[in-house]
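Reviewer 2 asked us to include a model.

Predict the structure of this chain.
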Amino acid sequence: MRGHLSQRLLSVLQLTRMALVFTAISNSLCEFLLLAKWYALPGHSVRAFIEPVRIISIALMSIGLYGFGMSLNDIIDRRRDSQIAAHRPLPSGRISIVTAHVICVLLALTALLAGGFYAKWTASGPLTFLLILWTGALITFYDFAGKYLVWPGLLTLGLIRFFHALIPAPQMPLLWHPLLLLNHVTILSTLAYRLEGKRPPLRKRHWWAVLGALFVVDLICIFGVWWKRGNQCDPQAFLSSLWITPGLILPLGAVIVFIVMGLLILRRSPDRRTAGQTLMLFGLLWLIVYDAAFVAGYVSYVAAVLLLLLLPAAYFSVQLMRWWSRIVALSQRPQYQRARE
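Predicted model (structure tokens):
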């Protein structure tokens, strides 16, 4: 009975990719902390704005959206996975299609209810709820069509991170945080797509399309925030409107460190596919480092350290899932196929 329950729980966690949900939680909590600092008076603490009930609702919202996207992806890909990834929960039969739909719907409802509860206690409540719906729409578009369109799908992955982070703080207190998430995830996904040799193949024109689209989105965001907050007749207002301070040094340093780490991964990996998978895993985990760097530079070092604790939690969750999968696989009875005559 225990083995059966363990296998069921593992299958659900694999369907929803919950090992990496900490990255989504970290992105949203970082933006929430930046918003608290944005509203805090000079010299005052942000603790008055930070309430446990808000943090819990943000975490539940992130878990719901993340799990919804991952489970929906497996539901849509179940026939293709039966040929190229038969070990996945759905094609292997460890989870029925009905159960998968129930899990997907429950996670979507969790995101809506938790996000709605958070929106109820914020001045920007309606916009927060609209961002939840918009992010869910982007996830649905990617799962149904975007991933087959190459560069639009790769850009959509970055936009999902961008808007998901902004759900607790639609005021966009610090543009550079969600913008870095957008660029990092899009470029990382494009590199991993190429290294793993996914289909449809990534052509040179797709590279230019991804980079060109990122450039346009970056310009629109920067110009839009500056135009809304700054005095367009005063060039000095550019720095204050975009909150450009020495606090940006830490995130920039984190970017440089990841580039060096990425080059080492590419150099030491035995093959391109392994390099792509390793780069993608560590690139997603590194999002938590970006979050902690922004919090350290703009909020407080204590909050940054607490947020950074999600990094080992995410890493050990990944390792636990791998170990758990091996244990469950060893506990199963071997299946034999009749030899062809």
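Residues 2-331 form a domain with the Tetracycline Repressor; domain 2 fold (CATH 1.10.357.140). The two ends are 39 Å apart (CA to CA). We have added this to the supplementary material.
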